[in-house]
Amino acid sequence: MNSYYSNRIEGESTHPVNIERALRKDFSAKPETAKLQRLAVAHIDAERELEMLVTSEADALRSDFLLKAHYALYSRLPAEDRTTEDGDLVEPGSLRQREVAIQKHVAPTPASLPRFLERMTQIYGRLVGLDPLLYTIAAAHHRVVWTHPFRDGNGRSARLQTHCALYPLSGGLWSVNRGLARRRDDYYGLLSNADMPRQGDVDGRGNLSERMLREWCKFFIGQCDEQVSFMTRMLDITEMRERLQALISFRGHSSQYKYYRQEALMPLHHLIAAGGVSRADFIQMTGAGERTGRRLLAQFLKDGLLVSDSHRGDVEIGFPLDALNFLFPKLYPEAAVDLE
Questions:
Q1: Is 38:27 a contact under the CB 8 Å cutoff?
Q2: Best exposed site among 30, 38, 157, 328 by fewest CB in 10 Å?
Q3: Is pLDDT at 340 greater than 60 in this prediction?
Q4: CATH of the domain at 228
Q5: Based on the domain organization, do 216 and 248 belong to the same domain?
Q6: If residue 306 lies in a helix (H) or strand (E), which one and from where to where?
Q7: For residue 208, how far is the Cα from the chain centroid?
């Protein structure tokens, strides 16, 4: 989810079906689509690597973690995917060596970047306690984008770092990137506003506007709150049972899914609520008899609604992409749209 929405913010997302295919090493014959697929997979793999490195929110806000985020993403891309429109090759984890301007904002000079990064570690990397957590992460996100430390990939690296800083709190169950992508113009606009010079003596003590930074932080925290609320609704056990029932009923009318039967509702719902069970227990919970139960089991394994680590291992609930419009409506609205 983070990969899809982070790249969508950059205007370089690909259809969720293409991402799923790329994860199976099935890349498009179209060069531009294949490039977007490689970018999506690199982001997913980088995110998994970085999550394993998180020891605390403060640790993830350190500048060296930001450099790791950029390296984890760009080291997974071939040289042609790391070449800018100007012909510059982006080196993974390396600071930019040229001056840049983004709209009205002139970023710090290359020579000053190490000092800016060191100061960011001093301020944001000493986060203590829960109360300042979200606004500190929000402020750090702005500061990274404002500093623009890399030749390319600043937004993606900042969002990887932000995801990891939120990871001890979110557990990966919700993503602020979804909210930021759905309000992309506000995301960019409020970040840009926070770059404004101080507006008078009552607007903070630094060079930049404290009021606009506060507006950005308020927006960021609001997006976190919305995504928590959204996933709380999506993971509600009672509502999930109703969505499972709708999926089974809908597919049960298709010859492609001829073994979808209402007897499967209870064991599938049990897997969501309580976790994996043996194959024999799943068949028994259907109450449909051994032969029919095995057919149900085989159909769900084939379709990805059940997953297992081995040919005979326990089964757990799966969430295949083609079922998400039933199970998690609005999580990936584009997943319900067929590719041409």
A1: yes
A2: 30
A3: no
A4: 1.10.3290.10
A5: no
A6: strand 306-307
A7: 30
Q: Do 104 and 46 fall into the same domain?
A: yes
Check whether residue 264 and residue 326 sit in a common domain. yes
The angle that helices 210-234 and 133-147 make with each other, rounded to 10 degrees, is 120
Q: What is the CATH number of the domain that holds 301?
A: 1.10.10
192 and 245 co-located in one domain: no
Q: What confidence tens digit (pLDDT) does each residue in 167-207 have?
A: 999 999 999 999 999 999 999 999 998 888 777 665 556 67
68-116 confidence digits (pLDDT tens): 999 999 999 999 999 998 899 999 999 999 999 888 888 999 999 999 9
Based on the domain organization, do 183 and 228 belong to the same domain? yes
88 annotated among ligand-binding-site residues:
no
187 known member of a binding site: yes
Q: Provide the annotated active-site residues.
A: 148
Q: What letter represents residue 20's amino acid?
A: E
Distance from C-alpha of 157 to C-alpha of 43, rounded to nearest angstrom: 10
Contacts of 34 (CB under 8 A, 6+ apart): 27, 28
The answer on whether 2 is annotated among ligand-binding residues is: no
**pLDDT tens digits for 30-49?**
999 999 999 999 999 999 99
Distance from C-alpha of 6 to C-alpha of 250, rounded to nearest angstrom: 32
Co-location of 324 and 206 in the same domain: no
Question: Is 275 annotated as a binding-site member?
Answer: no
d(CA 123, CA 147): 15
**Is 276 annotated for ligand binding?**
no
CB atoms within 10 A of CB 106: 12
Both 95 and 227 in one domain: the answer is yes
Number of structural domains in the chain: 2
Shared domain for 85 and 219, answered yes or no, is yes
